[in-house]
Amino acid sequence: xxxxxxxxxxxxxxxxHAQEKKLWTxxxxxxxxxxxxxxxxxxxxxxxxAAIDKSDAIGDFIPSINAQASASSSTGYSIDPTTNSFVxxxxxxxxxxxxSSLTLFDGLRNFHxxxxxxxxxxxxxxxxxxxxxxxxLAVANAYLQILSNRETLNVFKxxxxxxxxxxxxxxxxxxxxxxxxxDLLEIQATAANQEQQIVAAENSVLISRISLAQLLQxxxxxxxxxxxxxxxxxxxxxxxxxxxxxxxxxxxxxNTIKVSQSKVEVAEKDLDIAKGARYPxxxxxxxxxxxxxxxxxxxxxxxxxxxxxxxxxxxxxxDQLWLQDGISYGVQINIPIxxxxxxxxxxxxxxxxxxxxxxxxxxxxxxxxxxxxxxxVDVQGSFKSYQAADKTVEARRTAYQYAQExxxxxxxxxxxxxxxxxxxDDAEATLIQTKYxxxxxxxxxxxxxxxxxxxW
Length: 456
Prior knowledge:
Number of domains: 2
Mean pLDDT: 84
Largest sheet: 5 strands, antiparallel
Number of helices: 10
Strand content: 5-15%
CATH superfamily of the largest domain: Outer membrane efflux proteins (OEP)
Low-confidence stretches: 1-19
Number of strands: 11
Shape: elongated
């Protein structure tokens, strides 16, 4: 019997540990998102394609080597490939060959194509990093939202515990006839309202946890949770940096600008490739071929030593391949003269793409300047909101303590006392929201200044 009790206890403990939630840090969430986010995985596939394009460009500098072979059978009046004469009979022949070609000059298009492939691979890498930055910001924002909602929930629970104490004390005073029953009902209504606030705050925490889990591609919402670590107000030295300096730094570190710059360079290389089509193309070629025919025979001849006639006979397969082989090699030049204006039109189209990419770069710079300016203003505004909320909490807390003292000696009714407590609750909730809003906006401004998100 004792053994069964111990076994059940051990299984219960093991089961409880198995059901424990994994608590994620912000760094773990960011790392997991980078490894499992579908958008990032698609970007990594684009990088693999860019590497293949680079390999194709390198392959243009290597000679091409190809082997061919054909087998055919002819009946009736046709040309015998071994004698190149017309015959009227059935024969079978095989013609294998090996050929090779190498481009010697093509207007430097192969060099431009290789440089273009390198620039495109770099552009795709910048795009991948830009996507990762967006994911990191989204994860950090969702993570801080959970902490904000959880801290708000803790405040509501603390206020509810304080209300429960007031409720017990008021109940005793009502039973002793010191206070009217209406005061007790007012405190009970306040407690009920706080219970509603707690339920709503718990729902907010759950919803924010689900939002972060979905962002990480995690479906087990029940066992997903984050480390309950409160964030202090970070170093705000970034606010001492002039706005124009933050913007100038952002133009050198933001992947969005790097992507636009690389696209301009890629478009310029495409233009060079298009211009290269105006030049002649010089290539070298080499070909080795041989043949076999079942109709091939040695011709008869007279032996000069003996005067005896030696009749002809069939030639073996390997002997024919050796006797009937040939080699051809040389150079070939292709001079473009008139191709339906395709070369000139292609050059014009690529010039337009170059100008379009430059305009996009200017537009991205203007957008970045707008984003940095907005982030700078938002940080200052959110800091002022946080300071104001902090002062409001101090004032509401002092007012609440004063109201509590007056209520305890019967100089304030329960309604006014409940109102003082409700105003304190709202002020503390607002303080938490402004605190995390300020933290995120400050970190976002630091991100524009080049401080990595991993240092959050």
